[in-house]
Specification:
The complex is a heterodimer of chains A (about 190) and B (about 475). With about 190 residues, chain A is α/β, with parallel strands linked by helices. A seven-stranded mixed sheet of chain A has the order 4-3-2-1-5-6-7. Chain A is globular and about 60 Å long. Chain A has helices at about 20-25, 45, 85-95, 105-115, 125-130, 165-170, 175-180, 185-194, and strands at about 5-15, 70-75, 100, 120, 140, 145-150, 155-160. Chain B is built from 16 helices and 19 strands. Chain B has helices spanning about 5-10, 40-45, 75-95, 110-115, 145-155, 180-190, 205-210, 215-220, 235-245, 250-260, 315-325, 350-360, 380-390, 390-400, 445-455, 465; strands at about 15, 25, 30, 55-60, 95-100, 125, 140-145, 155-160, 165-170, 200-205, 230, 275-280, 285-290, 295-300, 340-345, 370-375, 400, 425, 440-445. In chain B, helix 12 crosses helix 14 (about 390-400). The chains are: A alpha/beta (about 190), B alpha/beta (about 475). At the A-B interface, helix 4, helix 6, helix 7 and helix 8 of A face helix 2, helix 3, helix 5, strand 8 and helix 11 of B.
């Protein structure tokens, strides 16, 4: 997993609530046996008419070339529904390293963190402030200080992340590295279950 | 100290707690399927790790399999490769596979319980959000992502933040025509699609106690649809009766020993929940959804909300968007609206009791000529039972298509899809945009309500059939 410390970027606003993982990556694109290449199908049915790349839905934000950046800002309850980790892979493959929302679904949050995509949970007010910014405004997300800043106004908010996960992300460690390191504890624990 | 059922099981499986971090939880049983496992297998292979406890994992092929001609090679190339990859991976890593053609094959959340693999007090995970189904037996069961599948392969453990606990109490007697699917759709409509996020939910009360195991599974199955990490019901005589003599359930002395442990699985009288909800069973009527998340449900005779009636601006926008996608008008009555498809299947409602409910409504009747009706048993065993009971004759005479076991049109991953713009009354669990195929419009309901619509061709109050 790639380490993630500080990101300053323009952002892509997606002000819809309850964006479920079926929208992020529809089930028919889950047939791959690798983790790569899901980005082209990110929000597939919101991006194209009849699944046809020659007929993009021009009103959809990812089809507006003037909007770019490695930060996606979405409405509340982002990532609800199916546990498919392909949703996190698709976001990462497309180029998003951070998702900002006022509320995340549990499984998505875990999946994102396990892939080095940082979910930044902000207050509803702060989220609305971001949505009201002019296109081209930048956000700064700093993991060490756990802050997200609107660069033009200097307004900032702290976000939560536990110490363990923060250390993992800052260093690019993942949970399997950790679990392998405590394998003896696990073997001893198994004896207590019998 | 008084403990909740959830706490008792979680703490028994707690290997250690990382300070200011998650808990390390030991997993008793791991179910896998073809869609969310291949990257986990290749993950441990790339790291040079061995599969730690292969006997604690069971595999089946369900999400991506065709539901006709399962004896033939899968036509679609990517699906065929993915299903074959599962076969190869299981062989290489010595994992038991109930794959296509095996008499135990079926939807992962249907075969676990029916084979007696799912047992009270266990921790159970699967790379599928409907793993909460197994909680009906008083187990801590929840969906995980593929990285977590890989963790279980490598160490039989995962890292999880300890969720909060919520109890939903339903007391009283259900009205005629109201079944467990209506209970859970009602609960989600009250709690909302995100209202239980961060919580493990225990369902309790006399109305829950009165339900069969299969009905309880339907309720626990949809816990994720209100955001819950999982759902569970304390085991009781109904549970033990169901478990007894299941293939992989403990036998003889082992059974007696297990019973001693299982009977301790309940929330202590003074146990404290972070949140409690009380519902009177008599409030609940047959339910149907009108929107694009499972929280947007109404009783069968109710009108779709008007936009003005919604106070919250964000919610108003959501519902406007949902109604536009669904092709519905604010304030519209759903009852009487034509539907083109009926889907009876999925890990929510494809067990034998569900199919019996359907048969009870349609026996001797024929489906409406404008409706395509697909009935997809949840497992090979359910399919065999359906035939043994002669339900196939009833379904065939009604003009229903009986398919072979799989997830099918619940998620439209195989060729079973609802055409764009058409309505489908579905016994499945999600009405998300495009869930049953791009442009499909899903109305979630119980097997009874689905059966009634198959006959009339329109959204129908099943109670009109019962009188």
């Amino acid at each position: 997993m790639k380490a993630l410390k500080h990101i300053q970027s323009t952002f892509i606003p997606l002000p819809d609530d309850n964006v479920d993982t079926d929208q992020i990556i529809p089930a028919r694109f889950l047939k791959s046996t690798s983790r790569d290449g899901f980005g082209k199908n990110l929000f597939r049915d919101w991006r194209y008419f009849n699944n046809d790349e020659a007929h993009p839905k021009i009103d959809f934000i990812l089809n507006k070339p003037e909007y770019k950046g490695s930060v996606l800002v979405a409405g509340k309850n982002f990532g609800c529904g199916s546990s498919r980790e392909h949703a996190a892979w698709a976001l990462l493959d497309y180029g998003f390293n951070v998702v900002v929302s006022s509320f995340f679904a549990d499984i998505f949050k875990n999946n994102a963190l396990n892939n080095g995509v940082l979910p930044v949970q902000v207050s509803d007010d702060f989220l609305q402030k971001i949505f009201s910014l002019k296109n081209g405004s930048t956000l700064s997300i700093d993991l060490e200080s756990q802050t997200i800043t609107i660069d033009t106004t200097g307004e900032k908010e702290n976000f939560d992340i536990n110490h363990y996960k923060k250390t993992c992300l800052l260093n690019g460690y993942d949970d399997i590295d950790y679990l392998i390191s405590i394998k003896n504890d696990i073997i001893n624990f198994e004896k207590t279950l019998a | 100290m008084s403990k909740t059922l959830f706490q008792k099981i979680w703490e028994k499986h707690l290997v250690k707690t990382i300070p200011d971090g998650p808990d390390v939880i030991y997993i008793d049983k791991h179910f896998i399927h073809e869609v969310t496992s291949p990257q986990a297998f290749s993950g441990i292979e790339k790291r040079g790790l061995s599969f730690f406890r292969p006997k604690k994992t069971v595999a089946t092929a369900d999400h991506n399999v065709p539901t006709i001609n399962q004896h033939l090679p899968i036509k679609e190339e990517l699906s065929r490769i993915q299903v074959q990859k599962l076969v190869d991976n299981c062989k290489n890593h010595h994992v038991e596979l109930y794959g296509l053609g095996h008499p135990f094959q079926g939807i992962v959340h249907i075969i676990g319980p029916e084979l007696g693999i799912t047992q009270p007090g266990m921790t159970i995970v699967c790379g599928d959000s409907h793993t909460s189904t197994h909680g009906a037996f008083g187990s801590v069961a929840f969906g995980i992502g593929t990285s977590e599948v890989e963790m279980v392969f490598a160490t039989q453990c995962i890292l999880q933040n300890r969720p909060k606990v919520m109890r939903i109490n339903i007391e009283g007697t259900l009205h005629k025509g109201v079944v467990s699917k209506d209970i859970i759709l009602y609960i989600i409509s009250k709690v909302s699609a995100s209202g239980a996020t961060g919580h493990f939910v225990e369902y309790a009360g006399s109305a829950i106690r009165s339900l069969s195991m299969e009905a309880r599974m339907t309720i626990c199955n949809m816990s994720i649809e209100m955001g819950a990490r999982g759902g569970m019901i304390a085991p009781d005589e109904t549970t033990f009766e169901y478990m007894k003599n299941r293939l992989f359930a403990p036998k003889d002395d082992e059974w007696e020993k297990a019973m001693i442990q299982w009977k301790k699985l309940y929330s202590d009288k003074d146990a404290v929940f972070d949140k409690e909800i009380h519902i009177n069973a008599t409030e609940i009527e047959p339910m149907i959804t009108y929107g694009t998340n499972p929280g947007l449900g109404i009783t069968i005779n109710a009108h779709v909300p008007t936009i003005e009636s919604i106070a919250d601006e964000g919610e108003r926008k959501n519902i406007e968007h949902a109604l536009k996608y669904m092709g519905l008008q604010p304030g519209q009555l759903l009852k009487g609206m034509p539907v083109q498809n009926v889907f009876i299947g999925s890990c929510t409602n494809a067990r034998i009791e569900d199919l019996r409910l359907v048969a009870s409504i349609i026996k001797g009747k024929t489906k409406n000529k404008n409706v395509k009706v697909m009935i997809v048993p949840g497992s090979q065993q359910v399919a065999a039972q359906l035939k043994a009971e002669g339900l196939d004759v009833i379904f065939n005479e009604a003009g229903f298509q009986i398919r072979q076991a799989g997830c099918s049109a619940c998620l439209g991953m195989n060729e079973d899809k609802v055409p764009a713009g058409e309505y489908c009354i579905s016994t499945s669990n999600r009405n998300f945009e495009g869930r049953q195929g791009a442009g499909s419009r899903t109305l979630l309901a119980s097997p009874l309500t689905a059966a009634a619509a198959a006959i009339t061709g329109v959204v129908t109050d099943v109670r009109d059939f019962l009188n």
